[in-house]
Design a protein that fits this description.
The chain is about 5% helix and about 45% strand. The protein is mainly beta. The strands form 4 sheets. Strands 2, 4, 5, 7, 8, 9 and 10 form a 7-stranded mixed beta sheet that branches. The relative contact order is 0.18.
Length: about 425
């Protein structure tokens, strides 16, 4: 039995699930499913005391600054809820006293955000009023509110499949497909580029995949700070890099020739229909294709996209796309075409399968954010190989990353600029 000699009353807050998933209704006329934030308050008394009341408070705060031409602004009453239990001086015996509580969280509440351009955070605290107007206050406990765009609230994300089809005057019909088991921050993503019926005299010089992030901040006076687009390169391939990849592949094949082990992803593969040594060869009228498995940057590089009906002054949107650099026979210089499409990138915490916990992992990736919510479910804390194995085992909703694709050697964590380098443009007045 613990000794209370010389001790003072203490109070603490424990949240049953610190991460709460929100999905505002896509139609404002239809009520949304508002989740509950549940927890327990524990009051420890070293001796019997008369208690007047318990007060549990949930408070949300938003702060932001839209670049050097805009002021710093803070909103500290975006979500304020209080629960009060009056005991009217009831004397409680020495020991621990627990009080369960719950808050209804509106589904359109601003989600958790941390970046150089702004923060959104929510905290829960408790206060106990004792006899003689004495107060005991708890520490503030963070609650992470995360939007989950899944069609069914509380369920895993659906597989992502999108397609870009266009006709280019020099390259002919082009199809680009972008797919992911679950499109989240730090998730795997597969790019497939097809020249369906290319003309003669085309040479592919370079291929890039990218994600573009834009941030808009709306001030209380309706003024908007709009950032310059931040482009994060997911892969960057040319003939020289492909040659190095092929050389490594051959060495790995020799090293594993006498072993009976799964080599589906261990051997880096060249994914051109033209063959391993001619990935850039384009034949007239013959479909040309290239497939590349990559990974989105982690949550220190990009932030989740903002859902349309989420009420927040900080809005983030993304575009996924590819860049094709090519040369026409006889031309003096290369030409470039970019194809991109808007995409919603969910939070890395929306990956609801059981990823390795801290205790199970041999080492935490130092580049992962240690302040991310509910880290045991965060994609950022999983290696590329772990995500691939999840897909191979069918742990995703719809496995789609076939053995045709390969995971490149580029690591977007070391090549993309940090989200802190958001460049906001000049002032402009606009309403969302």
């Amino acid at each position: 039995m613990p000794s209370f000699f010389g001790a003072s009353p203490t109070i603490s807050v424990h949240l049953h699930e610190p991460t709460v998933y929100l999905r505002p209704s896509p139609d404002p006329s239809i009520p949304s499913d508002d989740p509950l934030l549940r927890g327990t308050v524990t009051l420890t008394l070293p001796k019997p005391r008369a208690v007047s009341e318990f007060i549990v408070k949930l408070n949300g705060t938003i702060s932001y600054k839209g670049g050097p031409d805009f002021p710093y602004e803070e909103l500290d009453d975006v979500l304020t809820k209080d629960l009060c239990l009056g005991l009217n001086g009831e004397v409680l015996p020495a020991g621990d006293h627990k009080l369960d509580f719950s808050f209804i969280i509106p589904a359109n509440t601003a989600e958790y955000q941390r970046s150089s351009f702004g923060r959104v955070y929510h905290q829960v605290s408790a206060t106990c009023r004792l006899d003689g107007n004495a107060k005991v206050k708890s520490a503030h406990v963070p609650a992470y509110l995360v939007t989950n765009p899944a069609l069914i609230p509380g369920q895993s994300l659906d597989a992502f499949n999108d397609m870009l089809i266009t006709y280019h005057e020099n390259l002919g019909p082009i199809r680009v497909t972008i797919s992911a088991p679950q499109l989240t921050v730090a998730s795997l993503i597969l790019f497939e580029i097809f020249l369906l019926s290319p003309p003669a005299g085309i040479t592919i010089k370079n291929l890039k995949g990218f994600i573009k992030q834009e941030v808009a901040i709306q001030y209380k006076n309706s003024e908007i700070a709009q950032s310059q687009p931040a482009v994060h390169i997911l892969f960057d391939l040319d003939q020289a890099k492909i040659a190095k990849v092929n050389e490594k592949r051959e060495k790995e094949k020799l090293a594993t020739a006498n072993q009976t082990c799964k080599t589906k992803y261990k051997a880096v593969q060249q994914m051109s229909v033209g063959g391993a040594d001619a990935w850039d060869e384009v034949k007239e009228g013959v479909e040309w294709a290239y497939r590349k498995l990559s990974r989105l940057p982690h949550d220190d590089k990009i932030r989740p996209s903002t859902l349309e009906h989420t009420i927040t002054p900080i809005r983030v949107q993304h575009m996924l796309g590819v860049e094709i650099k090519y040369r026409i026979a006889g031309a003096a210089q290369d030409e470039v075409i970019q194809l991109a499409k808007k995409a919603h990138v969910a939070s890395c915490c929306c990956f609801l399968d059981d990823l390795p916990s801290y205790a199970e992992a041999k080492a935490m990736d130092e580049s992962c954010s240690k302040s991310a919510p509910d880290c045991s479910k965060c994609v950022c804390h999983s290696t590329e190989q772990e995500l691939i194995e999840k897909e191979e085992q069918g742990s995703f909703n719809a496995p789609m990353l076939s053995s045709r694709a390969h995971l490149g050697q580029e690591d977007p964590r070391s090549k993309t600029p940090a989200v802190g380098r958001v460049d906001f443009g000049a002032r402009r007045r606009e309403v969302f």
